[in-house]
Design a protein that fits this description.
By secondary structure, the protein is of the alpha/beta class. The protein has one domain (about 20-270): Vaccinia Virus protein VP39 (Rossmann fold, 3-Layer(aba) Sandwich). It is built from ten helices and eight strands. α1 crosses α3 (about 50-70) and α2 (about 35-45) runs antiparallel to α9. The longest helix has 21 residues, at about 50-70. The chain is globular and about 50 Å long. The two termini are about 35 Å apart. The structure holds S-adenosylmethionine. S-adenosylmethionine binds near residues 60, 79, 81, 107 and 110.
């Protein structure tokens, strides 16, 4: 189905979703009252989560700018979330007006809201919201909207910003990533972030471990990974300076606060396909 002729997806409001919770952390909006007990538990268990989410979202904007500055004019943004400020197509088009963007998510509210926004903005000719799961790369790559908007003979900007934590090891993230790498041409770029506890202080480790257990009650449990595991996700890509770093530290636009306790909990990097 093309994203221009969709029926809103039904939503199970009793099961908190990572997309709705992350959106709350960024915007403060409560989408369903039934999310509130879960949100309150998260605030208790991991009080730095909103700050972490803002750092993550801010990296997304810098990654899109970096890719547009490198000449990329088409993006596949997988696990794009609910639209909010600084959406990929808005950031990219503020720099290069013709840029095409395909968003992908498997969360009903993310899909419904993104499609509403794209329709309201009258940008469906150059932007689409695809209802698909990262665990099915061929469904994403062969979706009619992807084929309509992405020219796979030109470099593509792949954005997987904080979506791999929702892909368990059993789903073989390396092989999923390989399928996207094989679909794009040299000069394409991959930006990813991943929550991690490796460099976190003891107190944060305890908080995040408890928070991850809270996410176990959500529709999808979270998987934390090490710096090394994150680095292996870039197999086949040449990392841009400064390599694997914290999201806050990747070409920051403001001085980095090294006392910020959310800072070490999110690895980030951008790679280019040689
Ligand atoms: C933490 S949010 C990140 C949103 C956005 N990328 C950002 O960084 O601002 C994670 C998103 O990944 C989506 N997601 C989780 N598992 C997914 C999967 N298997 N396939 C597609 N999207 C998924 C969630 O629905 C959610 O919207």
């Amino acid at each position: 189905m093309s994203s221009s002729d969709f029926e809103p997806r039904p939503i199970d409001t009793h099961k908190p979703s990572p997309a709705r919770i992350y959106h709350h952390m960024i915007t403060g909006e409560v989408i369903f009252e039934s999310d509130l007990p879960f949100i309150h538990r998260l605030y208790e268990e991991i009080p730095f989560y909103p700050l972490w989410a803002q750092h993550n979202r801010s990296f997304l904007g810098r990654a899109v700018r970096h890719m547009v500055d490198s000449g990329i004019r088409q993006f596949l943004d997988i696990g794009s979330g609910l639209p909010t400020g600084g959406n990929t197509h808005e950031v990219a088009r503020s720099l290069a007006s013709g840029t095409r963007v395909v968003y992908v998510d498997n969360d009903e509210e993310a899909i419904n809201r993104a499609r509403d926004l794209l329709r309201q903005q009258d940008v469906l000719e150059t932007t689409a919201m695809v209802d698909a799961d990262l665990r099915e790369p061929s469904r994403i790559l062969e979706h009619p909207d992807t084929k309509r908007l992405i020219d796979f003979s030109e470099p593509v900007g792949l954005l997987l910003i904080s979506v791999l934590p929702w892909i368990p090891d059993a789903a073989d993230p390396a092989s999923l990533l390989a399928q996207f790498r094989e679909a794009v041409v040299p000069g394409s770029q991959l930006a990813m972030t991943h929550v991690s506890l490796e460099d976190a202080g003891t107190e944060i480790k305890q908080q995040v471990a408890a928070g991850a257990a809270v996410f176990g009650d959500a529709s999808t449990p979270v998987t934390l990974r090490s710096r090394h595991q994150f680095e292996t996700f870039f197999t086949g890509w040449k990392l841009a300076d400064p390599g694997i770093t914290y999201a806050t530290d990747w070409h920051p636009e403001e001085p980095v606060d090294i006392t910020d306790y959310a800072r070490p909990c999110n690895f980030a990097a951008i790679g280019t396909l040689p």
